[in-house]
Design goal:
It is built from 13 helices and 13 strands. By secondary structure, the protein is α/β, with parallel strands linked by helices. It is globular and about 70 Å long.
Length: 367
């Protein structure tokens, strides 16, 4: 039996705040903050003399992430944010005139901006209802989020990924919105690339991120950042290679130089916490809390879509949801507003008391 009370104790801010806004920022657990503190103490103790060992620790984190998403550790690279990973994909491929990139209307801005700069390619945005009909023999890449940041819409990636691959179409998934609350199986979805900035549902500091890249795609992408770790023999620091680098087959070939160890030690603790609890257990709890939120919002007169998503997006007729979210925030009930929706998002650290407080404060704010 999962001890949710003990898990909640990892997040001291929740003693004072009813935090229902993980779609904007996740709360960083105490164990992750302590890991960063230990790292600085370690620097002081050993004067950074063991810096190569830190890369072994980073590889350990690759393994933990691999277990979380069911992917080989060697296919995982670290990045500062998802935009860097998508830019690598856009700029690292050779686009031909007539190539098509397809995404959905109202996607996160990363996924609307970057494809515009794929020279020679046509960029198409469509509603989900027209998605399959919009695919053509020229469609080369589909760009999607695990969850829509505004509505919480969750495309059926388990079915869509293999279907696209059978047709020779690459799939890029931005998992920043959702991974950590929802399960994701790389072996089942089979994306060409999955990018995650960990500051939301992965409960990591801003700047801690990673991407998975399919080995076949990895061999076709030209690294956009080239540095001292680009050469396959970079660990031989006593005699670093001089000349044009020979890239390793591992995804670390895209990192180029140093990685943010402080942030990665924190991310490791958050990922390990999720593995300890169990990704399936987390998803079940999160979706159950989200269903309860939908009931509360409907009772308040809101229009809310169903769906297996931790983001609950509500429309309230005649209500300025931006002003409403600010009123709730002033009462230490943290939610957000996105494109006319009151957006309420739960994670595994939330509980029924949070939902009851939200219900009470929502009623007061609407009266």
């Amino acid at each position: 039996m999962t001890d949710w009370r003990a898990i909640r104790d990892e997040f001291p801010s929740l003693r004072e705040w009813t935090y229902l806004n993980s779609a904007t920022y996740g709360q960083v657990p105490r164990r992750a903050i302590e890991a960063m503190t230990r790292y600085f103490a370690h620097l002081e103790e050993l004067a950074s003399s063991d810096f190569l060992d830190w890369f072994d620790d980073a590889d350990r984190l690759r393994g933990s992430i691999g277990r979380l998403i069911n992917a080989p550790a060697g296919d995982i690279a670290f990045t500062g944010n998802a935009a860097n990973a998508l830019s690598l994909l856009m700029n690292g491929l050779e686009w031909q005139p007539g190539d098509q990139i397809l995404t959905l209307d109202n996607e996160f801005p990363n996924n609307l901006y970057a494809p515009c700069f794929a020279k020679g390619a046509e960029f198409v945005q469509v509603p989900w209802e027209r998605f399959h009909d919009s695919l053509t023999p020229r469609t080369r890449l589909v760009v999607l989020s695990l969850l829509n940041y505004s509505t919480g819409f969750r495309p059926p990636l388990d079915e869509l990924g293999p279907w696209l691959r059978e047709r020779g179409i690459m799939l890029y998934v931005d998992g920043t919105q959702g991974l950590g609350a929802l399960t994701f199986d790389v072996a089942r979805v089979r994306p060409s690339m999955l990018a995650v900035h960990g500051y939301k549902w992965l409960l990591s500091p801003t700047g801690a991120g990673f991407f998975y890249v399919d080995p076949e795609l990895s061999r076709r992408i030209t690294p956009q950042v080239v540095g001292w770790r680009s050469h396959k023999g970079w660990r031989e620091v006593d005699n670093l290679h001089h000349g044009k680098p020979e890239f390793t087959e591992r995804a670390e070939r895209f990192e180029g130089g140093m990685v943010p160890f402080t942030l990665l030690y924190a991310m490791e603790q958050s990922v390990e916490m999720m593995l300890e609890i169990g990704p399936d257990v987390i998803e079940g709890r999160v979706l159950g809390l989200a269903d309860s939120l939908r009931d509360t919002l409907r009772e308040a007169g809101a229009t809310v879509a169903d769906g297996a998503t931790p983001i609950v997006a509500a429309r309230l007729s005649g209500v300025d949801v931006s002003a409403l979210s600010k009123r709730l925030n002033s009462r230490k009930v943290v939610v957000s507003a996105r494109h006319g929706h009151l957006r309420v998002s739960v994670h595994f650290y939330n509980n029924e008391d949070d939902l009851a407080r939200f219900r009470d404060e929502l009623k007061l704010a609407l009266d």
